[in-house]
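Recap for those who missed Tuesday's class. We walked through two folding examples back to back. For each one, the amino acid string is listed first and its predicted C-alpha cells come directly after. Nothing is annotated here on purpose, so try labeling regions yourself before you check the end of the notes.
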Amino acid sequence: KKGFVCAWEGRMDTASVTLCQNSVVRSVDLWVFVGVAAVTSVGHSAFAYSGLRTFAWPIGATTVPRSAFANTYSLRGITGLEAVTLVGTVAFTSTGLESFAWPVGATTVPDFAFQWCSSLTAISGMEGVTKVGMKAFVGTEVGTDVGTLVGSGVGMLVGTLVGTLVGTRVGTGA
C-alpha cells in the first residue's frame, strides 16, 4: 500500500509509528490508536505537508507540537483535543480548517498558530485563553473583533494589539 507507514518499531503496546511525508493517508481516526497502550506524544511536524482531511487526536497526547499540521492544506477537521493543554507554534498554519474548537485546557494561543488559514471563519472555546501570540490569526477570517474570542483576561491586550495579532484583514476599529 503506497505511502502509509514508513516505520513501525517495537511491540504493538509500545510501538513507534512513523508516517511518510507526502502520505496518501486522508483520515486518521481514533481506532488507529486502539491496541496501543497509550499514545502520549506526537513529534513536531508529524503531519505537516500531509494529505490528511480529518484527524482524531490521541486521547493521551496532551501537547499538539510545533508545526504538527503545518501546510496540510486539505485538513478540514480535528477532533479529540479535549485533554490538550499546550499547542505549539505554527501548529495549524496554512491548513484548510474552516472552524476550530480550541482545547479548553490550553490557555495560550501560540505565535502563528492559525497563520494563513484563509478558510478559518469560526473559533470556539477561547474563554480560558489568557495569552494570544504574535500573528496567531493573520490571514484568517475569524472576525474583526478578536477580543470577543478570548476570556476577559486577555481581551484588552488583544484589542490593543489586534493589528499585530490578526493582520491587515482586521479593520482599524477592531
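Example two. Treat it independently of the first, because the proteins are unrelated.
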Amino acid sequence: ETAARFTVRMDLAKQPWFKAPGVVTGEAHVDSAGGRIPGIAFQLGADGLTVQDAAIRSVNAEGRLDWPVLRIERATLRGTTGEELRGSGGWDFRQKAVIDATVEGEVRGAALARWLPASVAFDRLAIEGRAAGPLASMTQSGRAEVTGLHLAKLNPMNAKVSWSGRGPEVQSFS
C-alpha cells in the first residue's frame, strides 16, 4: 500500500548552479510494510539535456529501494545521434556488492569524439556487459564490436573484443 507519493519536475535551465538545459521529471511511491523501513518505487526521466556541451536526448530509469538494496529494473539513455544504452542491476549497500548488472547498446563515434585523441575515431561501438558480486571479487564479462575504426595512419577497420574477469583483473581477453 502506498503511504506517500512524491513528484518532481525541474526545468534545469532555470537553476543557477550550472548551465544545463533540459527537463527532469520523476515520481516516487513510498510504501510501508508493518514496522520495517519503507520501500520506495521510483521513476525518473530527463529530456533534452545538455551538460558541458554534451547533448543527451533522454534518460529514463525505473527502480526500487528496499534498504539496503537498490535495484534499477530498467534504465535507458538515448543520445542525439542515434545512440541507445540500456541497463539494469542493483547495489547492496551493506554487502558493497553489485547485483546482476547488465548494459547493452550502441554508441556513435560522433557522440564521443570530443573526448578521443585526434588520431582515433570510429563509426559505431556496440557493447554488452555483465557484472555481479562484491566489488573485490565481482565477476565481470562483456564484448564489444567497433565498426569504422580509424587509428592514426592505418586503414579503417572493424574490431571485436570479449573479456571476462574477477575483481579488477581481466582473466580472459580476446
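Answers for example two:
The first strand starts at residue 2 and ends at 11.
Helices lie at 109-112.
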